[in-house]
Amino acid sequence: MSGNGKTPNRIPLSRRRFLQVLAGTAGALVVGIRMAEAADAPLPPALVGDNFYGLGAYVRINADGSVLINARDPDTGTGVATSLPRIIADELDADWNRVSVILPGLGVSDDNGKPRWTYGRQVGGVGGSIPAAWNDLRQVGAVARWLLLQAAARRFGVRADQLRCAAGTVIASDGRRLSYGSLAEDASKIALPTRLPAPKEAANYQLIGKPAGDVDAHAIVTGQARFAIDHHYGDALVAVLVHCPWPDGTLERSDFADCLAVKGVVKVLQLRPEPGQPPGSTPIAPAVAVLAEDTWSALQGRRKLKLEWKPGASAAADSNTFEQTAGAALAGKTDPTTRVRDDGDVDAAGKKAARRLDATYFQPWLAHATAEPMNCLVRLDKDQASLVVPTQAPQQAWAVVHRLTGFAPARIDISVPRVGGGYGRRLDHDYVAEAVMLAQSVDRPVRLLWTREQDLAHDYYRSGCVHQLNAIIDRKRKLLGWNQRMASASALSHRGVPDNHLWTSELQADQLPAGLVPNYRSDWYGLESTIPRGPARGMPHLSNAFAVESFIDEIAHTMREDPLKTRLRILGEPRSLTLSAGRTLDTGRLLNVLKLVADRIEWKNWLRTVNGLGIACWHVDGAYVAHAIEVAMQGEKLVIQRVVCAVDVGRVINPRGLEGQVAGATLDALSTALNLAITFKDGQIQQHSYKDYPLASMAQLPDAVEVITVDDDRAPAGASFLAMPTAAPALANAVFRASAVRVRRLPLMKELLRLL
Fold this sequence. Notes:
CATH class of the largest domain: Alpha Beta
CATH topology of the largest domain: Aldehyde Oxidoreductase, domain 4
Structural class: alpha+beta
Number of helices: 18
């Protein structure tokens, strides 16, 4: 029931979901998707504006003609706060200048003590927001437009099919017009159709496919944007931590007296990981927390702590030893942990080889280094929790809070402002567990703040890895066989994933050149490590594309062939190949992006230019990407002169947003490849600041990234990290052309200077 006693109109959308329409306050029309049988749950007042409950409201049209649209997924810089609302706005034929975007935070209601998610999927920064929302959001907009047309038809006394919508108005054939605002109240009282109205034909799109600036851009560049770290409850205590250097260590001795003597310090507490809980849902390591009235007092108190930590078994961890163990595993005769794929007969093909080529590639451990450090604001009342959390996955954050508090599902309110970078780090919620545990220990809200040093030294890292690749080439230069072996520590270890699926965070069965080589084998050797690991941006494509695309370049060099020609021959004629899990590889689309970057960078000159040209391509879940890079060597200085990237993600919602995402991911990947590595000795991380973990400077990066986007009528695919996998191999391949030095180990600059 709505707050005014009216029963919402319903129409089946799928087996367990419904479209709904409500009459809001002051003549507003509210349209959304409701989970079947959902109990009452509060909604953003700005969007609903009344005592309506349980509705996943996506669009509200007010009597003054203004439109509010919900962007359900957290925006970590990927632009979904712009692209998702534009899908609805286009179907609605709304005036984009009258649209305001609402970030609703977590939507959850109570279903007999279990959570029911008001908006369905709510995950940001993993490349799935637009594909997951495409059909639902178009349908919401189409239903809202249909209701407005019906209301206008009654007002004009004509059939609805004689009317059209444009920029927030309904227009009759004789030129009469009615604004959406004037029709909103009448539209909210019309019963939904027995058959859902069809979404627009692509030819009628007015916003989809047209460039638009980020809805938060002005607020961000003027400093007005509020991230989670900017939020504060007036009576909240500020909490800062000192984590144990070892995740399995213990506090041997402590003296809190000097800390407690600092003016403003209220309390010092110990935190311990909860036994049996998976990584990312409990504190990452034992810690001591200083709670104070303000940030300055908390930090000053932290400096006064006297702590002695006792290491656990993780004190034996060493990054050099880890790499040696990986190399030994690949060099030995032991069976792999998992045979990921085995096409044809690689061993038999080897007997027919005219040439064989082997290479080993090394990649370091990596940290996330998000711009906004980990933080969480939490208030716990008798039976209510209110949090402000920078998270990529609010439902997983909810699960942590629910486990620790036992509160009813709808009594846990999680707000998610714009997130200052995710990269996979905020799919874990150890920092949320810390904040809640501290709030349970003091009768006040808590504002937890991590320092940059903590962010780097206590992360869920991407594991270092070693690849051994072997190519079998016949007398006609055909790639007859491919044998790939990889050793790494799974990011899924101890996270409830079956042992035979631990490889899925490290490899994909269908990655290039799988399906293109008649005899193909991929093995994974799982290594143990006490260093925390978790999801990371571009995983598993980032590490594998570097090895694979660098190796294909080496094959071309061995055969004295143009590397582009080698890739074109491996890809073959345009065709559709069936992959696992119902996916397909369209070699024509991959060929297209490859040729686009080659043409733009003038690849025909690859042998004649004094600079080095490098190229690489990849595919990710139905999306396709290629990079071409030009570099010059000035003594021992590497200058990246040009970078071209082409992407094909199917239907492009916001070309400007996509271009920004591609450019940003490219620069992120180049920075990672050039400089970044996490090392550890005696179980302790050796990088503690950007001085130790140097993100690339502007001088190291290209002046611009030239982005080519391919738009077609296929359903949209994700682009969050699409441009990351191919940047590093294209760079390494270009460096080889310019310097005759083949870099097989990252970070690139350190290895290049060693080999020159």
